[in-house]
Amino acid sequence: MRIVFVCGAAVAALLSGPAGAAVVISTAPTSNMNCSGGVCTATAANAVLNVSDLQAMLAGGNASVVSGSVASDIDVETALGWASANRLTLDAFHGIAFDAPVSVTGGGGLTLTTNDGGANGDFAFGSGGFADFWDLSSSLTINGTAYTLENDLGTLAGAIAASPSGAFALARNYDASVNGIYHHSVVMTRLTGTFEGLGHTVSNLSVRAGKKYGALFDSTDTTATLRDLTLAAVSIKGGDAAALDGFNQGAIIQCASSGSVTAVGRVGGLVAYSFGGYILRSHSSAAVHGGAAGSEAGGLVGDIDLNNNQGHTPIQGVFNSYATGDVTGEDAGGLAGHLIDDLDFSYATGTVRGAVYAGGLVGADFGSIKHSFASGAVSGPDGAAAGGAIGYLFGAAEQTFATGAVKGGNNSMIGGFMGTGYGTIDNSYATGSVQAGTGSAVGGFAGSSQQPDSVVISGAYSTGFVHGQDSGGFQGDAGFNSGAAYWDIDTSGKGAKSGIAGCKRRKCRKGVKGLTTSEFQSGLPAGFDPSVWTQSLSINNGYPYLIANPPQ
Prior knowledge:
With about 550 residues, the protein is mostly beta strands. Helix content is about 5%, strand content about 45%. The strands form 5 sheets. It has a 14-stranded parallel barrel with strand order 23-26-30-35-39-43-47-51-48-44-40-36-31-27. Strands 4-1-6-9-12 form a 5-stranded parallel sheet. The relative contact order is 0.06.
């Protein structure tokens, strides 16, 4: 696994090292390595250290693997273990990838060092990678910080209560069914330090928190970091609830969840409320259930808010993350219920139903969405606003698309991309079918603007079939300020000759134009940057997709 993730400008090239440059620990013969005195250093960009050679070194003493700038990264591709009391040091110029288990079965130690001369590197655990410790007295040091090893949730909660600013790591996988049902979050002390999951899984966590936060961690401060943990088959209920964190102000990195989460207030598959924190390279498949009144429900996070006084990191929001679970709530989004922050290089695929606002990505967007997409079906009852990407827009979206079908009741505001609101949308499109009952504003791309010219749309198009009273191929109401906007006259059911083909009730404003399907698929639409978008007839039904965030 190459440790390369493409992020927005704020997260700039977080793990992008030189392509192909790595020391690979595998079953292949050792090559391009200089090993002397227990230290093996790469001598070429493509170097191999045989796992048996390394284990033999560890049987006799401490061992170090050094990438140097020539190899940049270290990649563990084959299971590695040792029973001695000796220490393994992995020292990378850039980053470290674990695609196979590392098992410290005796009293030995493990030291990980990233960015030793490089920058923007990290360590990551692939689907088969983790680091096990059989002896809790073993030593773990990551980038100069010594970690306390814990192997169950009870002792972890107690250790954090005694030292909230400490650094803690989960030594092995843990089945939380032995703890029964928690009636509050497991870790009630606000963490100000670091929790490192080491690629492990906590399974079968069950919480029934009443009106309180329900999660593994009740809250995390601006200086806190939660990372490298999977929560599997959770069953969480609370006033505000999530699998991992109830109230996040810090950093959540490379975490995941599955199961079900239910709350009457803020509810998310991974995080309930993120206030000034950030979520990076994380995902959730959990089913999320919010109350029909008063809930902000998201497949990954319920509510993402901006804290202007946040001093922990230069970034806030959600980056390189995704959600696949189904979501219901008052304001419901496939990824987030409410967004008052940044969302970049992310996606959602679950079905969404919102009582007031429903969006394939975000129920109500007051922030900024970029380089993202949604593919789940979206629906709302009478009077709701629903969109394939955004239910209610009060911010901005660009270089984003939606492919899910959108459906509403009577007197609704329904659009293939957005339902209603204010704000700006650039270089985006929608392909899902759209339909609603009588009295509704229905458009292939946008439903209704809050007032004339309150939504500015440029370089956008829609292709989905549109069904509704006085509906429009591109937009419902004609109150949008649209430039370089298009709808598909072949697939929408709205031909180019009718005065209401593009817009409901009145003629479209200048700049909204009907095109044929072949014209859409013959090349990138005007304004779509070829360094951001590309097309292939075998991917995404021939429509454009994001080079750095392709459909999965």
